[in-house]
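Hi support team,

I'm filing this because I wasn't sure whether my run with magnesium ion finished correctly. The job status page said complete, but I'd like someone to confirm that the output block is well-formed before I use it downstream. Pasting the exact inputs I used:
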Amino acid sequence: MDTDQLREYITSFSLDNCARGSQGYNRVLLQLFGYMGNGKSSFINSCKYVVLDEGEFKTYTDAGQSDGARTTRRITYPLTDTITVVDNRGCAKMNSYETGEIFAQLGNLLALDQEVVWDKGYQSIVHRLVEGDMNANYSDFIVPIFVYSVKKGITEEEVPEIKDLLDNARTLTGLDPIVVLTFKSQGNLTRVRAKFKNMGTERIFQLENFTPSDHLRTRARDQEILTFFYEVLKDAEFRMRGKRDPPRERADRKKFILYFAHEREMKREREKKEQAMAAQQAKGEREKATKGCLLQ
Ligand SMILES: Nc1nc2c(ncn2[C@@H]2O[C@H](COP(=O)(O)OP(=O)(O)OP(=O)(O)O)[C@@H](O)[C@H]2O)c(=O)[nH]1
Ligand SMILES: [Mg+2]
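And here is everything the job wrote out:
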């Protein structure tokens, strides 16, 4: 397909046209997640620029000037009548608090367009999930998109953390997260791609985001973004061939997050106990050594 045909497919896509109809869904929600400063907000600007094809480059999001935590709210950006992209808050490191929060964001269980705070324990996440139920949304078909910068690179130590995150995102949403590699010409693209392939990622896209200082449209740049949306929608269409039950699926996502948060709390308690025991043991040994010295 050429770029015009791809754009036509994307802008006219409707869930009503899926094999079994929309089954209660009314939008495809692309959930962007990833580390801070890896280009999530810029990716949304790039998508709007190419898909809407309005000619002029505009900045819709709060894309940063440097590697700082620019986006602190979860903001929705409608792209077409059916497709909406969500700019989720990026995190510095996937520690377990931040991952719990990311799953709650990804699972679409918290209110949209609000400030994101990293939760501080089991009670806090339960509280926020219950609050989220007040305006529960059952009609979003969630597609997880992991945005990662090639410039950042991946060390061997980072692989298990990222793989865990991608595997959990898959269990939570029922879809393999699609990886979008940004800053594609500013690092070792082949190596980063290979790392994601080894982690089991099926779909990887790579681009240089359009930014205020570089927004030259080329056919190849347009093609990458349009093909990305085409594949996202084809995957959604494929998943919609089966029978879907949006309220059931939301309940399953909620169970997953509660289970995850509970496990995390238990692990923290265990670690606290182990640390206290180790400190006690070290103290005992120091006292024994001091006594030994005094007796000599
Ligand atoms: N050269 C180049 N610069 C990029 C690319 N993607 C993002 N940038 C720049 O990198 C900086 C950070 O990008 P953002 O889009 O704000 O990153 P983010 O992931 O939204 O960051 P947080 O909101 O902090 O999580 C900005 O100055 C962008 O202009 C890219 O693919 N290539
Ligand atoms: Mg951002």
